[in-house]
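Lab notebook, bench 4. Still working through the backlog of constructs that have no structural model yet. Next entry is a single chain of 105 residues. Request: give me the structure tokens for it.
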Amino acid sequence: MSALFLKIAQLLALVFAAAGIVVEEQKVWEPFFTMGNLVEAVFVAIPYWGVKVIITVFFLSLGVTPFFLPRDYIFKGSEDQPLWKDLRYWTLAVALSEVIVYLYF
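Model written out:
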């Protein structure tokens, strides 16, 4: 992660130099390196099974959230209301398919 921030810092320094703005790289980019190291430490500290739980809960919450909307809102403006047009079930199907992919790999 820090290498990515370093490349971004170098690229931005080149852009600033091309625009005629002189920047001392170490003073300006030090907060970005500190933040990058913190983000990297947090991500590395999460175990693999924890990441799977987080992703699974995220996709299931996305799939279940539309069920809290009223049925009239889902079918607003539609004359017929067959079950296959109910977008709540489609979101649940897509979310479950994503969960299956993430749990498999």
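Notes after review: The mean pLDDT is 83. Helices lie at 2-18, 25-45, 48-64, 71-74, 87-104. Flag for follow-up if needed.
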